[in-house]
Amino acid sequence: MLNIGWFSTGRDEAARQLLQAVQDKSHNGDIDGKISFVFSNREPGEAKESDLLFELVRSYNIPLVCLSHKKFKIAGEKKVWRTKYDREINKQIEPFAPDLCVLAGYMLIVSAELCQKYDMINLHPAPPGGPTGSWQEVIWTLIQTKSDTAGAMMHLVTPELDRGPAVSYCIFSIKGEPFAEYWQKDDKNMLFRLIRQHELVREFPLIILTLQSLSRGEVGIKDRRIIDAQGKPIKGYDLSAKINHAVEDRLK
After folding, report:
1. What percent of the chain has pLDDT over 70?
2. CA 137: distance to chain centroid?
3. CA atoms of 33 and 43, how far apart (whole Å)
4. Per-residue pLDDT tens for 108-125?
5. CATH number for the 2-251 domain, one of 3.30.559.30, 3.30.70.920, 3.40.50.170, 3.40.50.720?
6. Rounded to whole angstroms, how far apart are CA atoms 56 and 71?
7. Model-level pTM?
8. 38 vs 6: CA distance, rounded Å
């Protein structure tokens, strides 16, 4: 059984929905694993949305670990507080011995020290080798370069931001329908909205199927490399067919 550590700032409803979706899949056996703890960089009382996440965590009887980065930053030294902060996180999560940590709406960049100790995966809204940056920056880059495809990947967190090896990914075309009309019109705003809509609807399935595949040994992480079921190195597990088929009706 996969022992999962869950990192979330808990800034919005989507953070709660994702936790609920993964917890449900774990409970019914679709994911052969369990969330052994939830870590947040906020503490109770800091924000309404994160407090709602904490209530949900407690309802599942999952241990909740909180450490306010704002309080830590104020009390710490300006230039080195991030490393010291992550060292304190490690002290608190080490007893859980997670096999895998999932960054699920976690709004801090993880220090090199922490991401090199644990296998940590994160969602990035671009295919392997695609643009880096925020989802807004990614989409504008795709439009400006007239890319044929968009997508998302779950990647291993490394000190190099958004450039860790892809664990899994989903790719979809942005040149056919319903995109073609807006490429022809050079309507960048409509293209932006459409690409975001089609990428966003794939995020939850990608995260859930990735955890399912990892828990079943269809894909794995070994010595900071991604491997298939036979232990051979791969450049990510392609979940495009499963995900694109699953979301077709939702996009009609």
Report:
1. 97
2. 17
3. 26
4. 989 889 999 999 999 999
5. 3.40.50.170
6. 24
7. 0.92
8. 5
